[in-house]
Amino acid sequence: MSPDIQITLQRPLNLDKYDRSVPAADQAHTIPKSFLDCMAVREEVFVKGQNIPLLLEGDSDDCRSYHWVAYASAEDGTRFPVGNLRLVPFPHEAHPLPGSSFDLPENVTGNELIAEPKPWIVDRATTFHDGREAYVKLGRMAVIEEYRGKGIAGQLVRSAIAWAKENPTAFDVHGAVDESGAELTGEMTAWKGLICIHAQEYVAKTWGKWGFNEDEKMGRWTEAGIPHVGMFMRVDLPSAP
Question: What is the 3-state secondary structure (H, E, C) of 54-70?
């Protein structure tokens, strides 16, 4: 029997008071509970389950991202978090190079969840990305062990994609400039339906079932010692009225 799952969206938020060096349970009470629930799931799956350092789990994309949290019901009617997914709007850092490795940077402190503006760049072209088109990126997919195999991950992905399709201009940027100071317009600042995922290799087939295709030219790399592969999908957006 499938569990009764409720999915909640946490929009971008101020994380000035979030200390990435301590667990979600010990954060300031001013942090929204839905975000703390996201981090609790991520800590359970990635930090405890995959031995990823706590300092590496939170990053500067968290405050500008949209987070979906899956809640299950307890016998007493209360709900508790069992899954999480985030959507990071553009711009993004350059695509990882084939064979590269990403680990915890040196001199990272706990209070680095305040996002510095990402530079607008022309990236290298890959199989599904021309290096210029704006795309959103799904990531940090996590479902706690006891609730895997119940379709919760798929619910999270479908919820995020459906919301993005219904709100395609939510990510559009106005007044952005490149490194030379020239204003950017068109394909680099307006979302046209392209979605990326940096998937751990062992779940790439699952992402494939949800409509994502492996980007062969992006290659493969490791993050915190875990092999990753780039994947993309494109969704049709509603026509403007």
Answer: HHHHCCCCHHHCEEEEE
Give the pLDDT confidence of 113-168 residue by residue, as tens digits. Answer: 445 667 788 899 999 999 999 999 999 999 999 999 999 999 999 999 999 999 99
Q: What is the CATH number of the domain that holds 19?
A: 3.40.630.30
DSSP string, the chain: ----EEEEEE-----TT--TTS-GGGS-TTS-HHHHHHHHHHIIIIIIHH---HHHHS-TTGGGSEEEEEEEEPTTS-EEEEEEEEEEPSP-PPPPPTT-EE-PPTT--S---SPPPPPP--PPP-SS--SSS--EEEEEEEE-GGGTTSSHHHHHHHHHHHHHHH-GGGG--SS-B-TTSPBP-GGGTS--SEEEEEEEGGGHHHHHHTT-EE-GGG-EEEETTEEEEEEEEE-PPPPP-
Count how many domains the chain has: 1
Q: Which two tokens stand for residue 14?
A: 């101020």
